[in-house]
Design goal:
Shape: globular
Number of helices: 5
Order of helices and strands: HHHHH
Radius of gyration: 13 Å
Largest sheet: none
Structural class: mainly alpha
Length: 117
């Protein structure tokens, strides 16, 4: 995939997550929140010539980018996205927590994609 395709995928995952939340399928919405974050990271990584072939590498690249930009919001965003990923498997997040955390991931994706432009 190209950088722009990853950016489009990230945005599509956010839209799909919103639909899943509205339909009451919080597990699927959770995984789509992670997917949005992952594709946003891949968009930036690809532009930088970095590989993101594993979950750990995605997180590592996100942390590297956040540290380079001294951006605490990016650090919090990737951690929150990982929380959604874990929630897909374990279903531990409360609905109120999901709303608050979804906003954090949306901001993370927007900020990450702004770095890919």
């Amino acid at each position: 995939m190209l950088t722009q395709e990853h950016a489009q995928a990230a945005e599509a995952f956010l839209e799909n997550a919103a639909r899943e939340f509205a339909a009451g399928d919080e597990l699927q919405a959770s995984e789509k929140m992670w997917g949005a974050a992952a594709h946003a990271i891949m968009a930036v990584a690809l532009q930088r010539g970095q590989e993101c072939g594993s979950h750990q590498k995605l997180v590592s690249v996100a942390w590297q980018i956040a540290n380079e930009h001294d951006d605490e919001a990016l650090l919090g965003g990737i951690s929150t996205a990982e929380k959604f990923h874990a929630n897909f498997y374990h279903g531990f997040m409360e609905s109120e927590d999901m709303e608050r955390n979804a906003a954090i991931v949306r901001r993370f994706v927007a900020r990450m994609l702004s770095l890919a432009e």
